[in-house]
Amino acid sequence: MKKILFVFTSAAFFAACGGGDKKESAENKTEPAKTETAAPDKSQDPDYQKGLAIVAEPKNLCLTCHKIDEKLVGPAYRDVANKYELNDENVNKLAEKVVKGGSGVWGEVAMPANTVISPEDAKAAVRYVLMLRNK
Ligand code: HEC
Question: Average pLDDT of the chain?
Fold first, then answer.
């Protein structure tokens, strides 16, 4: 009943500010709101693309131990993303671990220190990883 009332009052409202045209454009405008719960597509984000390029760079070796959705030597990137929120604190912490190496969070296997990646690239790579969150 509330919904019907809302539709009625908003229709009346748009009708009040004049003409069928306006009502139609208002309807079009409200359309995307229904799909708002779907995860936004982050793959077009420049940070995502930059980080992906670093992760995919063969000399960085990330993809020899990590896959997006499956555990390999290291945890699936999707699992990492679902564990840590994307914020500066987590990006800095995880980027430091990527550079220095470390263990104990996902199991017995350690991630070795990465001697070729710059701290800035490590941050960009981690930022991309954390954008894979889907939960
Ligand atoms: C030799 C294999 C190996 C390589 C190469 C590697 N990783 Fe890892 N990575 C691991 C392992 C093993 C873990 C789990 C460590 C743990 O349990 O604390 C891990 C964990 C991580 C984590 C989560 C850390 C945490 O504390 O939760 C991130 C983020 C990560 N790796 C990113 C990267 C990136 C980015 C690269 C490339 C620059 C990379 N890894 C290269 C093996 C690797």
Answer: 83
